Amino acid sequence: MPNDANTSGVLEEALERLHASGPEIYEWRLTNHAPMVVEALATRGRSASVHRWLDAYEERLDDFPDPVSPVTDANWHAALGDSRRGADWIGYFLRAIGERPWRDVLAEWWPRLLPGMYGGSTHPVICVGHAVRVITTSGETAPRLAELAHGLGYWAARHHPVSGVAPLAGAPDADGALDAVLPIGDLDGGFTARLARVDRLPVWSADVTDPDEARRRLTELVGASTRRYATHGHGNPTMLVHAATAPNAVLRTLPALPRALWVPSLRAAWTASAAVTSMYAPAEPVPYVPATGITAEEVLERALAHGDEHVIKFADTAVDVGDEQSLGAALRAVELSEPLRY
Questions:
Q1: Residue 159 and residue 119 in contact, taking contact as beta carbons nearer than 8 Å
Q2: Which keywords label this protein (predicted)?
Q3: How much is the pTM?
Q4: Which residues are 202's β-sheet partners?
């Protein structure tokens, strides 16, 4: 399918339009998904729909947050995970990427940020994954590099590690390991409250030491978690999307990272996917209904017509995976989710 991200100029216009807004909406209660969606639409050859979609979403946007105090190389430790410092962190990364090659900045900060990828309901790493994809596949531009800075800054402000998780017996493949994930006992509360109750997860890929094997296993995880949505997405149609899109963001970032970071990236991605699965698992799966003959183009058109930001981003991941059940899972997201009114 065509990629018009580099020819239309629409993505640059949309990102510049969005960078006047903050990374969260509704008074910093939910993530601003617009940068991720417009990148997906442009990369998938649908730049003509970008501004129309953004016009419908724009009423949710908040102004860019006020700065508190500059983040520097000397004081960043104290600012990490301070959600009040979103503007400060974005300013830090805008300066860093303006002064140094973006790959160097990413390589320095990825291992610092990776343990805290659960903050912001995993959206910050997804923002970074979208920004890295368009830069690596379609080239560097000032708005794209600025979007990477916004994503890294959002991640640093919402940095939230997980600890104290006991290992459970896993399985040799990603499908089996996800099947072995046990639901948390108390399903009340939002993402942060539920995350605090994740105290045991199956072990998977802990023995991997080779970077190429880590990439293969991460690809397997993205496929397994995407297909699983077809039978389990009703547990929470919005939040279970992230069991697939978060590890896919990590997978999309691997080519821009030093190979030494691929193995820890796999481990963090597995923990995130498994944690989301545990937090929102349904009581029982439903039978998979095959989407015989469906094409990637049709799935993207259905997702765009539906308009929900999570549906579009999940369809984008399903197209990456590409098999029939993954495409069917994207249609399941269309079926389960509330559409955006254009």
A1: yes
A2: Oxidoreductase
A3: 0.97
A4: 168
Q: How many other C-beta atoms can be found within 10 angstroms of the C-beta atom of residue 200?
A: 13
Q: Is the dihedral of CA 110, 113, 115, 118 positive or negative?
A: negative
| Integer Cα distance of 303 and 168 in angstroms | 37
Q: What are the angstrom distances between the C-alpha of 269 and each of 50, 103, 114, 214, 284?
A: 29, 20, 9, 11, 24
* Three-state secondary-structure class, residue 118: coil
Structural contact between residues 337 and 238, judged by C-beta atoms closer than 8 angstroms: yes
Token pair in block for residue 283:
């009581």
Dihedral sign (CA 257, 318, 172, 176): positive
Q: Which amino acid does the sequence have at 61?
A: L
> What letter would DSSP give residue 255?
G
Which residue in 245, 226, 229 sits closest to 40, CA to CA?
A: 245
CA-based nearest residue to 225, from 239, 240, 244: 244
Is 21 strand, coil or helix?
strand
pLDDT tens-digit series, residues 154-213: 999 999 999 999 999 989 999 999 999 999 988 889 999 999 999 999 999 999 999 999
330-339 per-position pLDDT tens digit: 999 999 999 9
What distance in Å separates the CA atoms of residue 36 and residue 48, rounded to the nearest whole number?
16
| Per-residue confidence (pLDDT) for residue 28, from 0 to 100 | 58
**Average pLDDT, stretch 49-68?**
95
Pairing of strands 24-25, 30-31: antiparallel
β-bridge partners, 201: 167
Q: How confident is the model at residue 341 (pLDDT cuts 50, 70, 90)?
A: confident
Chain CA centroid to CA 300, Å: 18
CB 106 within 8 A of CB 256: yes
Distance CA 53, CA 34 (A): 9
Cβ atoms of 142 and 51 closer than 8 Å: no
Please report which helix (H) or strand (E) contains residue 202, including its range: strand 200-202
Evaluate whether 61 touches 32 at the Cβ level (below 8 Å).
yes
Q: Are 222 and 248 in contact (CB under 8 A)?
A: yes
